[in-house]
Request: fold
Amino acid sequence: MTVMDADRAVAAPADVGASIAISNVTVVYGAGGTEPVTALKNINLQVKDGEFVSLIGPSGCGKSTLLKVVSDLMRPTGGQVTIAGASPSQMRKAGRLGLVFQQANLMPWLTIRRNIGLLKSLVKGHGGKVSTTGASAEELLDVVGLTGFGDKFPHQLSGGMQQRAALARALALDPAVLLMDEPFAALDEITRDRMAFELMRVWQQYRKTVLFVTHSLGEAVLLSDRVVLMSPRPGRIHRVFEIDLPRPRTPETRLTEGFSKLVLELNRELYEVMS
Ligand SMILES: Nc1ncnc2c1ncn2[C@@H]1O[C@H](COP(=O)(O)OP(=O)(O)OP(=O)(O)O)[C@@H](O)[C@H]1O
Ligand SMILES: [Mg+2]
Reply:
């Protein structure tokens, strides 16, 4: 696959999600040292435009490492990743990657509105191009259910609301892909459940390509088009589950036989890879 230049990546229609191609990715931490750790070995995964793919697997199997490679937070030891044909670094510099982590990491001295607009002003300040099709901070506040909270400061919001602000911030640059590493892990179960449906609503509206890490099998099945089960160190893809449950998915989806069957199957395989 050829790597095209950043300008062409920017010129790609901003409202269309990008496909992610992960080819033969290997990550060795401390390579060359006395105790190198092979975190990922020969990972191959293609994520289609607008697809929602979850990564699941035992602690330490390399899920966060894979997300870091895709989001240009680290380079793989071997193999390569392309997003819409460009490198992760080109996509990140073009503001086309939206990241959401376990903690919201909002700037405490800025209002929610300014936190949401922060990345946009940073990219502009560095002379970068900003997508003109991106929603305004006001629209994003509405989208994530924070209408009227733009003038509040992070400490005035609950954990769930802060996480919604983090999602709005990630969407502000109109990214081609959303990379989410256990975004709801720090939330209580009821808020987490609501966030899952809100994320699906946002995803349905914007059709971003999403790569999502979770430890919750139910959450993965509810949200995803495919669930990728990874095996323990060195992390490899053990099996990919197609989630063919009809959309839109609702709280009732979880009451269906199809849903329970998939969660059970995933559960069985997870215990198998851990044994
Ligand atoms: N900076 C680092 N230096 C050395 N080893 C590391 C580093 N980061 C991660 N590792 C190791 O790489 C492996 C994969 O780590 P990673 O954080 O990707 O796992 P994970 O699947 O996200 O786990 P969890 O579910 O607990 O978040 C682990 O064995 C971890 O100890
Ligand atoms: Mg992790």
The radius of gyration is 18 Å. The pocket of adenosine-5'-triphosphate (ligand 1) is lined by residues 29-30, 37, 39, 59-65, 233 (CB under 6 Å).
